[in-house]
Amino acid sequence: MAKPNPDPIQQQLIAARRNQILDAATQVFADKGFARATIRDVATTAGIADGTIYNYFENKTALLLGLLNRLNESDLRQGHFAQSAELDIADFVQGYVQHRLEQFGPDELQLLQVVLSEVLINRELRDLYYQQVLAPTFALAEQYFEQWSMEGKIVSANPRMAPRMFAGMVLGVLILRLMGDRYLEIHWGDVPQALAAQALSGLMPPEGDYDATDDQA
Amino acid sequence: MAKPNPDPIQQQLIAARRNQILDAATQVFADKGFARATIRDVATTAGIADGTIYNYFENKTALLLGLLNRLNESDLRQGHFAQSAELDIADFVQGYVQHRLEQFGPDELQLLQVVLSEVLINRELRDLYYQQVLAPTFALAEQYFEQWSMEGKIVSANPRMAPRMFAGMVLGVLILRLMGDRYLEIHWGDVPQALAAQALSGLMPPEGDYDATDDQA
Amino acid sequence: MAKPNPDPIQQQLIAARRNQILDAATQVFADKGFARATIRDVATTAGIADGTIYNYFENKTALLLGLLNRLNESDLRQGHFAQSAELDIADFVQGYVQHRLEQFGPDELQLLQVVLSEVLINRELRDLYYQQVLAPTFALAEQYFEQWSMEGKIVSANPRMAPRMFAGMVLGVLILRLMGDRYLEIHWGDVPQALAAQALSGLMPPEGDYDATDDQA
Amino acid sequence: MAKPNPDPIQQQLIAARRNQILDAATQVFADKGFARATIRDVATTAGIADGTIYNYFENKTALLLGLLNRLNESDLRQGHFAQSAELDIADFVQGYVQHRLEQFGPDELQLLQVVLSEVLINRELRDLYYQQVLAPTFALAEQYFEQWSMEGKIVSANPRMAPRMFAGMVLGVLILRLMGDRYLEIHWGDVPQALAAQALSGLMPPEGDYDATDDQA
DNA sequence: CATGAATGAGGATTCATTCAT
DNA sequence: TATGAATGAATCCTCATTCAT
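YS: structure for the whole thing
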């Protein structure tokens, strides 16, 4: 109530402990799901006592929000959209997808797994996730698509639908992988390029002087 | 467990009661998630007593399996892939996507929501779902893609990757809708065509004589 | 939510079970105090399972409120004040005190013990108790004292202070007994008369030169 | 436990800290009750760290005993009984009651509240309190009443019952005030005299055969 | 001495499941 | 078959207490 604890070392210790706990929570929740996982599971995995968790998180739900925030930050950390709207679109999309998927290492996949599972059945969390992650992403993407569309760089008819299909594609493939598809797991390295190609094929105008525009129009 | 009860009327009554319970379970699980939902919730929603559920389902988990089967049947019911591999591919894809998405009315969306949420964090269920639903679908699709590819009808380099990206796209857009995206909700009617177009653009060979195979390699 | 359960037999069973639980709660709470007593203590004492208590009481606090109500009813059950304001005052006071104290058998003493202990440190319960028990009692008593005072039947100067000192006397002696005073415990039978005499002596006008020592003997 | 620390300044510091803690404990316990109050509550109120309390008190129960002792000392501090048994009884009683009640400022009321609440449900504490406070008081009082009675100064037949009724009266009125009676709170200044008068009326012999009935009637 | 993070035993409460009616 | 009261295992969370700093 009084001391905002400006001690930077304390701050770091606290942050470290919180991360330690969230790491454990990610593992445990991904394995058993949020509801079936017990605080004891998390504590044991983190190598601490049950009660200690409550020195760092209000309650079990706060752990989930902590994971949501992690996913959030992980998403924001690669806000490459803003970076380069002037690049060649093909390069941009390719780079973006590549980046986006590379971001999902094993840890982030687990994060997504946990959060997604809960988001699907928890309205509160869903709203939070949508407002914090999806809505801003779509809003930004719509701007770019609109601009590109106006500049004639892409032919996609609908600048609001396109980002959703694009995002859906990425999300869907991630989920198929999470659902245990062996092929995707093994060939995960090929996925970015394939995704980018698929996305681009729907966006790009036919290249060059051949007259095949009618296959889209 | 003892009497096989061959009475057809009894059978129907039992099936009806089971459906009544599964309907309630779908609603309740979709609202609160499987773990947070209680048997009492389901019973109350179904308008019966708690104990009655146990006359029709072994335990709570059996309800979930019941829902998985429903989703299964719902999937199989439209096994249109087999039907018409000789159609024009564009028509076929369009028809397939259309069918596939139309199948997901509000009830099926809830089913998907529940099952997906659990599948993400329940290895057992995940394996079941994968083996019962995804694997057969992919296996079949791979055959067709291979055939089409060999016949030169499509240019997609990889007949194993393509169905996964295709399925991912459909699944991803469904999930975005489940996550509360207003645009998709409102323009749900436009989604099938957009999806089909996007999918086709990546599959169809350029209709001109330019060599576009390299955008996949 | 739907059935108000008008079944009278059910009602009786429910009431009986509630009483069984409240009986146990009285004992346990009186022995260890509300906070130190566990639900398991109560359940064990009542000879039922822990969870069963929650079929009859919302939570632990509701048990306390149940006891408060019991004390309430026990108080109201002997609303003899109203009955006979026209009696000879001496008879009336004597009768009242007698009645009041006789009402406190072992069970009621325990009730008082528990409720009083909590009332002293629980504002909410205190307000409830004051409004439900004390305030009405005082309000009624004040009327009588006022009337008697106007009729010249008593000399007590203050019709608002008098009932409080009267009630305080009764309450105080009860508490001294609860605190383990052996003398009061052994001579509890003499208390009503002594109390009545003490009370009357402060109320009654001196009756001239009669020898009043014997009303103590 | 090892060094008796004869340093008088240290002693004072320790005493001061103990008092600081007991002050906090009084407030907190009065507000939430002993069991519901946490060591952290007390520490925070005292403006110190949790652990520090354990440098001055063995455990939480020791805090309660500390408060009991305080009440004890507060009681003993005004051992006026001994002082003046030869005064006029009326003066003495009046003085005693006055003193007794004036002793209960807000702090002492809180003390009483806490201790009383616990004493009612804690046999150990109850015995302690009875033996340390009530029993000696009664023993002393009984002597005086006996003496007065033998000297004919009072008519109360029973020198053992009388002090208990007397003490009960005082205690009871204090408790009614603690229970939130507004009238007593506001007119607390009038209470001593009223109490004394009530007490005296039961003790004093009729003032001879004077005929003063008409001044009331 | 003072601090407050860590501990883990303990307790209120929930809920899947059983079974007598 | 339907019911719903009873059960008690399981779990979240609190908090007195310890102890390294």
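YS: worth flagging: Chain A has two domains: 1-57, 65-215.
IM: good catch. Also Chain A has a mean pLDDT of 84.
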